[in-house]
Amino acid sequence: MKFLKQEQKKYEQIVDKLKTKNIRMTDIRLAIIAMLIKAEHLTTQEIIKNLELEFANVNVTSVYNTLDLLLSQHILFANTFNGKSIWYEIASEKSIHLKCDECGDVIHINPMTSDKFDFNEVVELAESKGIKLDHFKIEAHGICQNCRNK
Ligand SMILES: [Zn+2]
Ligand SMILES: [Zn+2]
């Protein structure tokens, strides 16, 4: 897996955090973390499918256990945009999703590369209400260009 510099840093931070908690880093666990750093957000089915390209035997139970473990360590967020499927992604202090309510497409705004949004505005808004922000999750809904053109 080829990482950009920021992605490599994120990956190392996560692995270090798990190591300090004496959590055993198996190949499958490392692969799931790397995959989610690269892919923004994925469903369990997509994670399993990707693992099967890399590993001969993928134990589905251990994939579920890994996802639970990473959720409990606050390394992952679980999102349900349509109330049905769960999308997993690397937890971030700044999470923004734009969803088309017509076709269900979800655009994930990457806080590392997005310059279209001033994240400090949310931090300042929270501070003005006396909240020292830890993280935020914004889910915005609308109709995408494709659906509007139909
Ligand atoms: Zn749409
Ligand atoms: Zn996402």
Please give a structural write-up:
Helix content is 45%, strand content 19%. The chain is an alpha+beta fold and 150 residues long. The chain has 2 domains: 5-89, Arc Repressor Mutant, subunit A; 92-149, Ferric-uptake regulator, C-terminal dimerisarion domain (Dna Ligase, domain 1), CATH 3.30.1490.190. The strands form 2 sheets. A 3-stranded antiparallel β-sheet has the order 1-3-2. A 3-stranded mixed β-sheet has the order 5-4-6, with no helix packed on it. Strand 2 and strand 3 (87-90) form a beta hairpin. Helix 1 (5-20) runs antiparallel to helix 2 (27-39). The protein is globular and about 45 Å long. It binds zinc ion (ZN) (2 copies). One zinc ion (ZN) binds next to helix 6. Keywords: DNA-binding, Metal-binding, Repressor, Transcription, Transcription regulation, Zinc. GO terms for molecular function: DNA-binding transcription factor activity; transcription cis-regulatory region binding; zinc ion binding. Its cofactor is Zn(2+).
